[in-house]
Structure to design on (249 residues):
């Protein structure tokens, strides 16, 4: 990418972001980040019926607060998907990518991203700080993803404010939302906490909401649902259907 489009070229196209992603989450008591995910390396094709922009339109119409767009080729994604999504919806967009280089932040913002994913498991402490500071200078929010208590301690030192707790065990690839509940007590007051992976229905969503989580990021559960609009509504406003059961859980 650097050879095809040098950083100097990208820098000339940039407009500074306005931290629209975190603002959209903070303005709500509950937020669904809906992921436009066509495939995964582990499970292959997940959605054949819709394009990424078409999925984005469904999610936006049915209550999502923000969108996540994969730009990695292993997930059948690319940076141009962000441009196409931004052309059809007004929701803020997270660039879902394995970010390891500063160039990727410039490229994400140039494509129209409002936020980027930083994964603590693949970044050193200095990389987390450097990438977070650069993102801030570009007006990009960082969703800093953790899997363990040790990673959570590291992102505190990096000054993270928007933190994603991934419920997927990176060794076994199994998911369990209990991981979010285990790490919540060690999260800082004022953080925006997002639970990622393994959220199956409105009941799961309501349990997380009642525990103090700000929102959820859901991909596979949405794109493989028989009725995607209905599933989006269920996760975006979980209290409508699950208030009684969720409160007693």
């Amino acid at each position: 990418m650097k050879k095809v489009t040098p950083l100097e070229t990208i820098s000339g196209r940039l407009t500074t972001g306005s931290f629209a992603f975190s603002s959209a989450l903070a303005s709500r008591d509950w937020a669904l980040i809906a992921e436009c995910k066509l495939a995964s390396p582990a499970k292959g094709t997940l959605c054949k019926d819709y394009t990424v922009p078409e999925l984005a339109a469904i999610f936006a119409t049915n209550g999502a607060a923000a969108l996540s767009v994969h730009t990695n080729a292993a997930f059948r994604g690319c940076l141009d998907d962000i441009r196409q999504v931004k052309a059809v919806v007004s929701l803020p967009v997270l660039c879902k990518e394995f970010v390891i280089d500063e160039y990727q932040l410039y490229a994400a913002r140039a494509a129209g991203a409002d936020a980027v994913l930083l994964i603590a498991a693949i970044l050193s402490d200095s990389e987390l700080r450097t990438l977070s500071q650069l993102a801030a200078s570009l007006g990009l929010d960082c969703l800093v993803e953790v899997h363990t208590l040790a990673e959570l301690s590291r992102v505190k030192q990096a000054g993270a404010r928007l933190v994603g707790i991934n419920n997927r065990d990176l060794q076994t690839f199994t998911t369990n939302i209990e991981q979010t509940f285990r790490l919540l007590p060690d999260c800082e007051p004022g953080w925006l906490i997002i639970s990622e992976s393994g959220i199956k229905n409105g009941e799961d969503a309501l349990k997380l909401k009642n525990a103090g989580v700000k929102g959820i990021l859901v991909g596979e559960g949405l794109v493989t649902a028989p009725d995607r609009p209905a599933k989006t509504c269920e996760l975006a406003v979980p209290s409508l259907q699950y208030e009684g059961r969720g409160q007693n859980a």
